[in-house]
Design a protein that fits this description.
Elements: H1 13-34, H2 53-59, H3 66-72, H4 77-94, H5 97-107, H6 112-123, H7 130-140, H8 147-154, H9 167-195, H10 199-207, H11 212-223, H12 225-237, H13 244-250, H14 256-259, H15 262-272, H16 276-305
Helix pairs in contact: 3-16, 5-9, 6-9, 7-13, 12-16, 15-16
Length: about 300
């Protein structure tokens, strides 16, 4: 009701369309985010080996915290955690600032046509699946037919072909390929934030004699600091998530010591090994750590910078 009147709120045709569009997103969250939460009960049950997951959820006996203890005492636990956290820390140090720097550089391009071409080329890899993109990279790195080895030998950097599938090259391969695939798409949110900055700020700075670097340092970066802070906190909260497809494409038996992360570990034990309760406990462990990291990052950022997630 509107104050002072008895006119009822009417759902017009346009409002009905908007409600229907919003309801699809709400329905998606219900089906794929909230309903699956009932499966968390498996983490506290002995549901490994059941062919029917629903049957395991309802009829399997309770196990308490046994599945969590089994994961924390597993012989592969330390190696899996080292690879997971190590890769994510490297990506946080290298891959997180890369889209920001790229967006700042894109913003300095004055020719709009050239800027659009650069963005198109940079965004294109994002629309390729990791199976396709990773397959292309693997062909380029092939010891016998790959152009990368041929170029390295011709330029005199190596005397013989390098096997990039070895464990010592795995982390570098992951970092470089994630940069190639994600830097363009990751920069879009920062480009959008930069485009919303009041142009009069730049005009005033230019009148005061500021050059491009000074305007970038004192206007652009502070203006998008809130966006950077938000995405940094979210990146920190995902410290135990690597992205299954990316790792799986480049993983092989030779580099398992450096490539086995929580996501691939869960797939092998949960899907292939039918250890549903065990891997549900691992997933819940990841979620709890992510929640703690999210809150810690939020309150730390709030105290230091005055900005946070909420």
């Amino acid at each position: 009701m509107v104050a002072g009147t008895s006119k009822a709120y009417k759902i017009t045709k346009n409002r009905l369309q908007l409600l229907l569009m919003a309801s699809l997103g709400f329905l998606f969250l219900i089906v794929f985010a909230y309903i699956p939460m009932f499966g968390i009960v498996l983490a506290f049950k002995q549901g490994d080996g059941y062919l029917n997951i629903l049957d395991a959820m309802v009829n399997s006996p309770w196990a308490g915290l046994d599945n969590f203890r089994a994961f924390l005492t597993d012989r592969d636990f330390l190696n899996v955690m080292r690879n997971t956290i190590g890769l994510n820390l490297l990506q946080l140090a290298i891959n997180f600032p890369a889209p920001i720097i790229f967006a700042l550089l894109i913003n300095e391009i004055r020719a709009k046509g050239f800027r659009r071409r650069v963005q198109t080329v940079a965004n294109f890899p994002h629309f390729l699946s990791w199976v396709i993109f990773g397959g292309i990279i693997l062909m380029l790195l092939n010891m016998d037919t790959g152009v990368v080895n041929a170029a390295l030998i011709r330029l005199g950097f190596v005397d013989e072909a390098v096997n990039f599938g070895e464990a010592r090259y795995f982390w570098g391969t992951i970092i470089i390929t994630s940069l190639m695939k994600g830097i363009g798409w990751g920069s879009l949110i920062y480009v959008a934030a930069i485009s919303g900055i009041d142009p009069t700020l730049y005009e005033a700075a230019e009148i005061d004699g500021a050059n491009r670097f000074q305007k970038m340092r004192h206007i652009t970066i502070p203006s998008i600091a809130g966006t950077i802070t938000l995405f940094f906190i979210l990146s920190v909260s995902n410290l135990l998530s690597n992205g299954f497809e990316h790792i799986w494409v480049f993983q092989n038996q030779i580099n398992l010591s450096r490539s086995e992360v929580i996501d691939t570990y869960v797939y092998k034990h949960g899907i292939i090994g039918l250890r549903y309760s065990y891997t549900t406990a691992v997933g819940l462990f990841k979620s709890i750590v992510a929640f703690i990291l999210l809150l810690s990052g939020h309150y730390t950022s709030k105290r230091l910078t005055g900005r946070g997630v909420f």
